[in-house]
Amino acid sequence: MQHETPLFIGGEWVEASSGARLAVENPATGETIGWVACADVADLDRALDAAARGFAEWRITGAFDRAALLRRAADLLRDRAEAIAPVMTREQGKPLAEALGEVRGAADMLDWLAEEARRSYGRIVPARSAGIDQHVIRDAIGPVAAFTPWNFPINQAVRKLGAAIATGCSIILKGPEETPASVAALVRALSDAGLPPGVVNLVFGRPAEISAHLIAHPVIRKVSFTGSTPVGRQLAALAGRHLKRITLELGGHAPVIVAADADLDRAAAVMAASKFRNAGQICIAPTRFLVEDDVHDAFVSRLVAQAEAIRVGDGLEPATTMGPLANERRFQAVERLVADALARGAELRTGGGRVGNTGSFFQPTVLTGMTPDMAAMNEEPFGPLALVSRVACLDDAVAEANRLDYGLAAYAFTGSARSMAELRNRVEAGMLSINHQGLALPELPFGGIKDSGQGSEGGSEVLEAYLNIRTITQTTL
Ligand code: NAD
Prior knowledge:
- This protein is α/β, with parallel strands linked by helices.
- The protein has two domains: 3-250 and 452-473, Aldehyde Dehydrogenase, Chain A, domain 1 (3-Layer(aba) Sandwich), CATH 3.40.605.10; 254-442, Aldehyde Dehydrogenase, Chain A, domain 2.
- The chain has helices at residues 41-58, 63-92, 96-117, 155-167, 180-192, 207-216, 229-241, 264-276, 296-308, 328-343, 394-401, 417-426; strands at 3-5, 7-9, 12-14, 21-25, 32-37, 123-125, 132-140, 144-147, 171-174, 200-203, 222-226, 245-249, 254-258, 286-292, 347-350, 365-368, 385-391, 409-413, 431-434, 453-454, 467-475.
- It starts with a strand and ends with a strand.
- Bound molecules: nicotinamide-adenine-dinucleotide.
């Protein structure tokens, strides 16, 4: 069965005006499994017009009603999760259980945003004189242009769509061309929950053309992007030129500090599950394992055992625990990083190459003896590579953890409260998870520092990016 994904503009599913469309492939088989409409400037202008009209209506819709709509959409997603998950697995490759978890996680995110929608408080500031009222109010910034990637087609999109809806904004989302039917299923749930036309619009096409047109357009007041740091830099420059506020969720290169007093079984099990989830195509994936000398070999043998227990295969097969990389381009990028590391003296402990003859399957891979001159230690691998380096002490681990300009996620394993306090203070990351994997929950801020981004897409901070702060002062005398 092939999926046709049209554009969603002004409350209607429509073909691109030019009739152009792009093929969608299953990365497990290489087969074309559907088509996605490819918008041109005329389509974008219609989406802008719809978003302007949608905003006029939605900004004056009460917070209670916005919250109710989000909760209805969350329920619809839960009801439809079993039907949506295989669509995502075929487009993106992740195992069915992960796809199902992603759809249910998106429903949780919508519930959280529904709650926060009703807590978007203003303030009354005490005045200097009698008869003066000073109000600080927060209201919707305006139509949003958002750009989301293919690695979590629904969860990356829901953070932006849900926050825009919660605050009273309208939004044009450029979804991922690689995984269009998944994100369309999310938009359909929002629309079926009763969203007025124009509040959410979904387009696909040539990314650079769409971002250039939307960000520059006067209707758009805010930009939100999730993807690579180089593209984020380009879009930030464009937003700067047009004075548009921007939120950026960019790449990471997460360090994992394993101290000599860590629970090694737990560290290896928790980090392997996190490393190889979604075949490592996660911005918060643990990547640089910095292991204290005394426990290096014991930790590596545990990590290798975990990696070798993974069942690589088509995500639709129930036994599969890791699917393919999202496309052949990613496969080649990961293969190049492994070859470079080996040429520079790394040791391959397991994995390192292709699985099977069809599809973009890469083995769960553990490399040791990693050094800072290796490309993989500097570029985001975005694949199933665990890169292990020996460190003499925690100071050395912190120095290596902070060496890169990335600052998204970091992990640490230690039994010492003193080391935990030290790491909390010194590791430069927007999110630090100690002795477990506890990141990316709706109620916690999600975002990076340094070159990993700006702003947060979770927690009670999530709505700030979509709100103006305005001062009203009035006298009744
Ligand atoms: P890419 O940089 O070509 O694209 C990443 C995403 O940005 C895609 O969704 C793409 O459609 C979009 N994009 C690219 N150019 C754009 C533009 N000018 N305007 C608007 N959107 C644009 O990389 P890729 O090969 O698809 O993915 C690989 C890299 O992307 C990874 O190495 C990783 O760093 C990054 N990435 C990060 C995340 C994340 O969650 N932060 C998600 C996916 C990809």
